[in-house]
Design goal:
By secondary structure, the chain is of the alpha+beta class. It has one domain. The protein is built from two helices and four strands; from the N terminus they run H-H-E-E-E-E. Strands 1, 2, 3 and 4 form a four-stranded antiparallel beta sheet that branches.
């Protein structure tokens, strides 16, 4: 299964929604979609996601048309921690 197939069903439909208003699954899906379609070749980003109350961070690099994902590392272990702090107007 390709990366794109794995996240196909997690896509978001409201592109005018502010990122602060998305739940964690929608936020994650929006970032994956952005990385697949907009991240420039040979650039990288850190992807953060929550698992059992802890936030992990995974480096991902776009090499040509491929995205390589690194090993997840524990970023924050705190129940009230947030994955990202988006500006109000960011969509």
């Amino acid at each position: 299964m390709s990366f794109k197939q794995a996240f196909f069903q997690c896509g978001i439909t409201g592109f005018d929604k502010r990122l602060k208003d998305l739940n964690e699954e929608e936020e994650f899906s929006a970032l994956i979609n952005w990385a697949l379609n907009k991240l420039q070749y040979f650039h990288s980003m850190d992807l953060r996601y929550r698992v059992n109350g802890s936030i992990y961070q995974t480096p991902s690099h776009k090499n040509g048309r491929e995205i390589r994902v690194g090993k997840p590392r524990l970023k924050i272990h705190h129940p009230g921690a947030i994955t990202y702090d988006w500006d109000e107007e960011t969509k």
